[in-house]
Specification:
It is built from 11 helices and 31 strands. It is an alpha+beta fold.
Amino acid sequence: MPVDYFRRVPRDFTEGTSPGVLMSVVATCVMGSLFVLELREFLQISVVTDVVMDDSDDFEDIQINFDMLMPDLVCQYASIDVSDMMGTNRQGITKNIVMQRVDSNGKAINRVDYTGDQVLEYEAVDETPSHDCRVAMYDKPDMTGWKVEMPPGQFTVGDLEKQSAWKNDAVESLKVDEGCVAVLYEHGDMAGWKAFFPPGEYTGQQMVARGAKANDLSSLIVVAGTEDDAKAANNAIEEDHAQMVKREAHELSAATFDAFVTDPENKMVVVDFYAPWCHWCQILEPTWKQVARQIPEKPYSKDTRVTKVNCEENRELCMKHNIRGYPTINAYMGSTSAEETYYGDRTTDAFFAWIEHEHKVIGATGSIAKPQAAKKMPNDAPDASQQTGHAHLRIKGDQGKLIGVEGCAMSGYVEVKRVPGNFHVQFTHESFNFENSLINATHAINHFSFGTPQPKSTRLWMEFMESKLEQKQLDGVPHPHALFHDIDTLDGTVFISDHIDRTYEHFIQVIPTIYRSRKGLTVKTYKYSVTSAEHTDTDKFPSAKFSYQISPMAVVMSEKSTPLYEFLTRSCAIVGGLFTVFSLLNAAADVTIRRFKGSIGKAA
């Protein structure tokens, strides 16, 4: 006879009972409920986490992405530095970084395009004009060593220091071409001892014989002509020195500043804010005096004044005008608020080109204002959204309108090694000196992250996975696998420094995190927690510092769903198990009822 696991009892040998019907109804309801729950579990996607050793390549760099604003840091003074415990020390990083100047309201200070009859353009300064003669200077007595060639013109100590091979007071021999005469001076502003050198070659001894002192040269003039022409040029300089008291830049104080810069006769006042101990201020001093002496010769001399302020003696005045580095050169045009801050070359030609440009701006602004005023009705309220001030033309971001406190918005990324280190935003500039008491490290962070930024769709998927973890609760306590529940990040945070000489440091613990989908997609990113603190930095200027440490362990977050075979197995187990259980219950009920009826019959 063939094997048959599913033999049936003939229906004639079975009968229905009321308890059996009741059990069948209950069993069907329970089976249906459990099947629905099992189906729901099958259709849902769960997320599980594991902690494993990070298998990233130790030689692979990691990105630090940032978008932040420092409202009291001028972009020209900003330096982004990176260092780590392996000895890496990179300063002034500019690759992959964008810096945008902003005003006190956080609005970008951009180029203002001028459309009118007058064409505005910034005069470019020709640093290497063509001349027929040259004066070559050497740092060895026999015309060897480094060599510097100077064309005809007047050169203060500041001009000389801009030469690539120049070292102050280091000239020991020189050569003068035909058609040229050189006059050497002791001091940086064509003063002190002087010596004339017609065409020829001069060793150290020959220079001394003509009245010069070896290693004591600080300025010179080169004249294309005869020695008489050179003497005439020297006489003109000495005459200028004699008139210095009348023409040179005098100093302002807190008591005289406002009245001087708002005087209608002083339509444009250019102020040098300096400190006596500042190296770059000392180099600028003779050039600044020369600018003051030559101003009367310019066509715009009638309404132009140059002056200076000693910030050591007038600290409150300099802080009021947001001076952050020395020397800072501001232009004032009838107001106590600076219209322009100069960041260009510190030569007389560059200064005069800038001043002349600013006067073109004044004229253009007047031509724009008159027709606008004619169109405006007397009762019209001013439009606060319109930009005020002059229609400045920008050149390579070096010139810009200063509206209140000027700040800097920085965004981009830097690449660092996978070792403990720090990312640093601080004040520094090769041509400025700074003082801690003038610096405020307040900053706002729009975004700060590690690793390669992910596309929006991938970020949304990662947020979904994390939300699934956060939904797992045990009596109101986050599930232990929900590692990123309520974690601190720097995005959208603001750190206000209550002390102007403090550094804000952020200590960041970075955790590599790997996301894996059911379809095999793997995404690696980095989560972090942060602790921030403010402290006095005695080694450097106040700044924003981000110290980071990357964990050697990685968290793996994986999507998981119930396999089809497991769903079918559980469904069969539900049906078979419940059928067996209820069959036993039905049999037990049937036996109980039969015995109960038998006992009643015997009693009757």
